[in-house]
Recover the amino acids of this structure.
């Protein structure tokens, strides 16, 4: 049976191709693997035949339902699914239509029911018979062919030429390493967190293995939260004796095994090209942009990613300080810095759009006297953005600290008389901490380091501001620059900067 995919497919394919900051071959492979991982596969079997120009990927995931298989071919299906997995339904195959003669897909649904779906199709561009329409359009045909011996999905791409990266096993391995390194390293964490079972990757029957780099120094964290100490993230930092390959330098921030970005978490130090690592947080999938190649900076998801960033930056800097790769900076009680900090506090307190990034709250435990004379209460909860790592504090320490802090209140209550009212104390401040830094090697006028703004006293503008006796205005502008640096769009930056400086004149 013949089916039409519909809509203006040519513009659609061009638009989604332009979403990616890498080649279409790379995008096809990244999306095919993402779809397989969303289907909870434990095996990615890649077969490459350069002579026949065939690339094939088979998984043993859940397979598609009949409805899912129809949507897989449908170009009008929305692919803007934020917070639900790392792939888009059928997007890898849709992109592959631009570089292939045809695509054969077979899917077998995982089910104990005798009615579970098992289907196959051939998908390609075809010119319509009517002469008035000269452009080709995508059509797909039902196939009787059945080759899968297990549940899952098989996608076979018949490419148009032999020069594609998808036909070169070395290039395919490099793409997998670049985008899915955590998937291959963090098996135990994924099983512990209930994300994936161990995933194996075969390329032409050979088990894909990572190159063996032996680090000089390493640090691992399992990040946990709540009374159950449930793991929600994993961090690995490594210092190597020699320079690492370019696509391995920096810290890979990933979610569900897919590397979203690599950077140094706003840290600068000698021999940066020798440092590599991974920070994997599955719940950051909720913060992905539409193309799932970056994290959002606005709204609730943006706030969540920002809080995570502060925690990651803090732990990374601690490790760098231990290795003496960066100088350990102590916050000094500088009178000018404290005065500036109070001014910034008042300004941010008047700007709600900045409060969501720079407002800080702390909750304290409270105790209640029960009818039997015993006291019960809540222990301090780790607020979002202030989660502790496994090495920092054990369950017993959390309990002990809460009890120690409450002893004085327990002694102050009169046993047997009135039931003490339960109350929660909340302290709030707005705005970051302020500190001065003498960094002549940096061009930055200022920057954020966790919850602290560092003003560069070695910057030429700072020195000129002192000579002209306008250092107060310089520092206000420097703080605003640091705080607004991560705002996603230029328009928002300008609007908030104008609002910030407007409030400066009223403080």
């Amino acid at each position: 049976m013949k089916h039409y995919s519909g809509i203006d497919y040519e513009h659609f394919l061009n638009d989604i191709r332009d979403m990616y900051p890498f080649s279409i071959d790379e995008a096809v492979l990244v999306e095919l693997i993402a779809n397989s991982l969303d289907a909870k596969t434990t095996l990615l079997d890649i077969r490459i035949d350069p002579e026949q120009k065939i690339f094939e990927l088979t998984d043993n995931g859940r397979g598609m339902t009949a409805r899912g298989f129809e949507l897989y071919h449908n170009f009008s299906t929305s692919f803007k699914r934020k917070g639900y997995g790392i792939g888009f339904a059928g997007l890898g195959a849709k992109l592959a239509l631009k570089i292939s003669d045809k695509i054969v897909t077979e899917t077998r649904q995982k089910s104990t029911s005798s009615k579970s779906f098992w289907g196959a199709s051939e998908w390609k561009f075809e010119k319509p018979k009517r002469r008035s329409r000269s452009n080709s359009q995508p059509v797909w045909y039902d196939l009787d062919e059945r080759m899968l011996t297990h549940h899952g999905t098989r996608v076979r791409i018949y490419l148009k030429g032999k020069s594609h990266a998808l036909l070169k096993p070395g290039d395919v391995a490099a793409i997998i390493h670049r985008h899915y390194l955590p998937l291959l390293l963090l098996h135990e964490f994924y099983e512990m967190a209930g994300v994936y079972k161990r995933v194996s990757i075969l390329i032409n029957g050979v088990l894909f293995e990572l190159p063996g780099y032996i680090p000089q120094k390493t640090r691992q964290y399992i990040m946990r939260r709540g009374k159950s100490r449930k793991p929600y993230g994993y961090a690995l930092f490594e210092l190597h004796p020699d320079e690492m390959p370019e696509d391995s330098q920096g810290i890979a921030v990933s979610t569900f095994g897919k590397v979203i970005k690599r950077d140094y978490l706003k840290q600068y130090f000698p021999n940066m090209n020798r440092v590599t690592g991974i920070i994997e947080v599955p719940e950051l999938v909720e913060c992905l942009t539409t193309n799932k190649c970056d994290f959002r900076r606005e709204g609730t998801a943006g706030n969540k990613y920002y809080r995570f960033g502060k925690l990651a930056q803090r732990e990374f800097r601690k490790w760098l300080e231990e290795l003496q790769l960066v100088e350990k900076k102590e916050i000094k009680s500088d009178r000018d810095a404290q005065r500036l900090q109070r001014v910034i506090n008042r300004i941010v307190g008047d700007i709600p759009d900045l409060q969501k990034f720079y407002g800080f709250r702390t909750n304290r435990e409270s105790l209640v006297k029960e009818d039997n004379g015993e006291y019960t209460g809540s222990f301090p909860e780790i607020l979002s953005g202030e989660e502790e790592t496994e090495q920092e504090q054990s369950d017993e320490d959390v309990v002990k600290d809460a009890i120690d802090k409450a002893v004085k209140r327990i002694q102050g209550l009169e046993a047997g008389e009135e039931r003490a009212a339960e109350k929660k104390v909340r302290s709030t401040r707005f705005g970051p901490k302020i500190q001065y830094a003498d960094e002549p090697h940096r061009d930055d006028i200022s920057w954020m380091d966790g919850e602290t703004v560092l003003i560069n006293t070695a910057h030429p503008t700072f020195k000129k501001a002192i000579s002209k006796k306008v250092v107060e205005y310089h520092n206000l502008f420097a703080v605003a620059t640091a705080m607004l640096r991560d705002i996603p769009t230029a328009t928002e930056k300008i609007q908030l900067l104008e609002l910030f400086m407007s409030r400066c004149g009223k403080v």
Notes: The chain has a mean pLDDT of 80. Residues 121 and 482 are 54 Å apart (CA to CA).
